[in-house]
Amino acid sequence: MGARHPPPGVGIGGDVVNRVAVILFGAVGVLVLTSLTFVVVPYAMFDAIPPEAKLSPYTEAQSRGREVYASLGCVYCHTQQPRDPAYAPDGQRGWGRASTPGDYAYDTPHLLGTMRTGPDLFNIGARQQSEQWQLAHLYNPRAVVPGSIMPSYRFLFDVKASASAKDVVVNVPREFAPAGGVVVAKADAVALAQYLLGLDHTYASQMMEPARPAEEASRE
Questions:
Q1: What is the DSSP letter of 74?
Q2: Residues 6, 3: Cα–Cα separation, whole Å
Q3: How far is 127 from 110, CA to CA, in rounded Å?
């Protein structure tokens, strides 16, 4: 009688193939489940949340400035998410109330940030309402904030011997101004300043529950 051969999939080689298939399908299953849990479901939940009643969409200039903000990596040193007083004294720092999902209805992608090498910028437009301040701060942060460790973004500006009527001239303090010229903001600098000025979420939130007296909360 001739030698018998095991059917396909049986034996050492087949056992290895079966195990690899189980591991492969298991890994794909875990990936799909994780994506559904942490990406698809949260997106579906928050996509249905309406914007805060007094939140305005970005203007064209602010949208361009937001792109510049993202391209410069500002999100690596600044957050835009003041936290609840129960978790951090952000309100005492002058950064405003805790943010809500509706505050970010027009943000794609979100620029929440994870580090605070610099201050939170959720309400920088309310704290610093001057375009000149914003531009001077971008040109040289030390010109308006002594001791600042923020880098200068001078490539967003030109230095001209004289400015034309259409130029946006930046009033830099004398000790920081270039010799023999005036500082003129480029289009990206102006757009970035407009975006920062638009970061004003000082309106009352319709999504935030009103604070309850401490005695009432303690009875729960």
A1: G
A2: 10
A3: 22
- Average pLDDT over all residues of the chain: 88
Q: What is the mean pLDDT of residues 177-189?
A: 95
Q: Which pTM does this prediction carry? A: 0.78
Cβ–Cβ under 8 Å, residues 136 and 144: yes
For residue 121, what is the DSSP state? -
Amino acid identity for residue 169 in this structure: V
**What amino acid is encoded at 110 in this protein?**
H
Residue 75, Cβ neighbours under 10 Å: how many? 18
Burial code of 46-74, b = ≥16 C-beta within 10 A, e = fewer?
A: eeeeebbeebeeeeebbebbbebbeebeb
What residues have CB less than 8 Å from 89, skipping those under 6 apart? none
Average confidence (pLDDT) over 189-203: 97
Paired tokens of 36: 């559904």
Angle between helices 60-71 and 187-197 (to 10 degrees): 100
Query: Strands of 157-160's sheet, edge to edge?
Result: 157-160, 182-185, 168-170
| Statement: residue 146 has pLDDT above 50 | yes
Residue 5 confidence (pLDDT) above 50? yes
Tell the residue number behind the tokens 């505050």, with chain if given: 103
Block residue for tokens 């970061």: 199
> Sign (positive/negative) of CA torsion 160, 162, 141, 73?
negative
**Residues 170 and 157 sit within 8 Å (Cβ to Cβ):** yes
